[in-house]
Amino acid sequence: MVITGRAGVAATLIVTSSWPRTRDEVAGTFVRADAIARLREGRVVVAAPDGPGDARGGYGLEVVDVPHAGLFGTPGAPARLLAAPHRIVGLLPFHAAVARLARAVRPDRVVAHWLLPAGAIACALDGEIEAIAHGGDVRLLEAMPSALSRAFLSRLASRARIRAVSPGIAARLRAMAPDLPVVVSPMPVAEHALETARAHGARIRARLGGDLHVVAARMVASKRIERAVPHIAARGGRLVLIGDGPERERLMREARRAAVEVIATGAVAHEQALAWIAAADQVIAPLARGEGAPTVVREAEALGVPVVVLA
Q1: Mean pLDDT (whole number) for 21-39
Q2: Which of 28, 153, 280, 298 could make a disulfide contact with 18, Cβ separation 3.0–4.6 Å?
Q3: Cα separation of 311 and 288, whole Å?
Q4: Which CATH number belongs to the domain containing residue 201 in this structure?
Q5: What's the number of domains the chain is made of?
């Protein structure tokens, strides 16, 4: 796809390592909600990792698939790197393709979701830069030698406006670089999908009844989803697991051992995930280590569904 700049139209280029696709729309849906919200400011072009299916745009978004040699995708870049470390070379074609797209679009603003790698890539582009920290990128920086993470954050701040999606993430960034200027601003909720979710959720409850306790997340070890099993075992009810990943089978075994009935949907479209949330008696949010403000919590609150946070 060739995209060229349009005279007189403000343009935002979003660079992201996660974006919803037709098979698994749960991953990166908060990035899509942010992109849709930015349409009020003008044109929005998204540089999204290529992968199975078609990248979902809609609402006037322009989504461009970017090659990455398998580095990005479900269940997340860290898990994919652990499984195949050679995938790190995917940063090279990803960076090169984003640079070509930026030259074609000539954006007024570049928005990078996750400080690494998107923030580092965005700093080489022209225009106003906004780099957003979500959690996984902060964990990566914390695992680096302190001098290296501090130098990276200082360099990023010299070029970009740094935004954290929660006060906790902002505090962790400042712990690495005490004078770092950080703005706290949560991600928007997908308001455009909530009414449909309520209607579909009502149909799920009519079919299955109540006692539905929903966990919606990538099934990876860092999410610590297994903590939801004893929570439900002590209170009764059914566990609805929305999502997929390497920990899914282990979670199913733990639930069976605890005599907890499980409904496992696997990877579903975001609209389906929202419908299950709307149908729930409660949403359980086991916070990952260092996680900031999970989108599922804000979506449940917007749908009026009680939330239990397992910190």
Answers
A1: 80
A2: 28
A3: 8
A4: 3.40.50.2000
A5: 2
